[in-house]
Structure formats: structure tokens, C-alpha cells
Amino acid sequence: MLIFMFYLAITAEAMTAALAAGRRNMDWFGVCLIACVTALGGGTMRDIMLGHYPLAWVANPYILLLVCGAALATIPLARLVDRLKWPVLLLDALGLVVFTVIGCNIGIEAGVHPIVVIVAGMVTGTAGGVLRDVLCNDIPLIFQGELYATVSLVTGGIYFLGLQAGLPVDLMALVAIVIGFALRVLALALKWEMPKFVYDREMRK
Known about the structure:
Layout: H1 2-23, H2 28-50, H3 56-59, H4 62-74, H5 78-83, H6 85-110, H7 114-135, H8 149-164, H9 169-190
Helix pairs in contact: 1-2, 1-4, 1-6, 2-4, 2-6, 2-7, 6-7, 6-8, 6-9, 7-8, 8-9
């Protein structure tokens, strides 16, 4: 189940990244690069952080072909994909929680501290989007009040605590994904946000 969701998620991430690149008039190489960074950047950063080698896309280079293919296929379908706002957002939410669970699994296999396990899940789920936004000269989405990294942390926490309680891996993966996905969708629908720190020196004069 996780493998299927993984491929679905990286395809969706590649397509949304291609749209971001297109809005900035990037060439086709730029489109593919932004797609790869977005879809695979989180897992790459996690593996480097944990010393987990080979990297996923090095071990299976066909992942690169899938990501680049999805990105290039988005170019002629850009207007259609851009109109499918909610389906794309739902796929992105699914990708967030699936990547988080996969990242937690890698952390558990590496034998790291429980806090690092959950951080590994969050990095897997969110770092690709941060890299995309930085390369596109935007403030990363997770720093703008969106319940995104928070959803990832909650998902990872539920998954890991369930495993620590001795519950089956498949059951906890499903429970964590369903709860995390529902939380992200509710945050989008109800516009839930993290409190923001606003400090304007001019206002203090």
C-alpha cells in the first residue's frame, strides 16, 4: 500500500512543482529540476541526515524518469491541472502523510532516537517543498502559517507511538495516514493556521 501511495505522491508533487516552475517561465530543464527537488528532496535530505545509503533515487533511477515524465506531461496539460485545485491539494496532503510515515520507517531502521525518528518523517514530508519554494524565490509554505509541518509531526508521532505500543505496522500506517490526511484537509477547508509572529520596527516608533 505504501509503495503505491509513494509513487502516486511523487507524481502529484512533480506535477505541482512543474506548475510552480511554469509560473516563473523556466525552461524544460528547470521544470524537471524543480520537480525532482520537490518530489525527492525530502527523502534525499533525510537519507543524508541519517547516513542512509544509497539514496532512494540512486538505488532506483527509474524514479527520476517517473518524476521528470510527470513534470513534462504537465506542460501541455498545465491549464487543466491548474483548474484541478482541490484534487491536487488532496494528492499533496496524501503525499505529505505518506512521505512522513516512510521517513519514520527509515528512522526506525536506522535505530535513531525517537525524536529523530519523528523529525526524519517531517523532513521527508516537507523538505522538498521548502527547497522548491527557495529555488522559486518564495517564502516556504511551511513558514507562512500553514498547518503543514505540524500535520507531519502529528502523523509521525501517532505512527511511532502506536508502534511503541505494540500495534501492527500496517494498522498504524493506515491510522496515521488517515488521521494526518483528515487533519490537513480540515486545515485547508477551515483555513486553520499556526499563530504568526509579526514584528514591525516602524510601528514601535
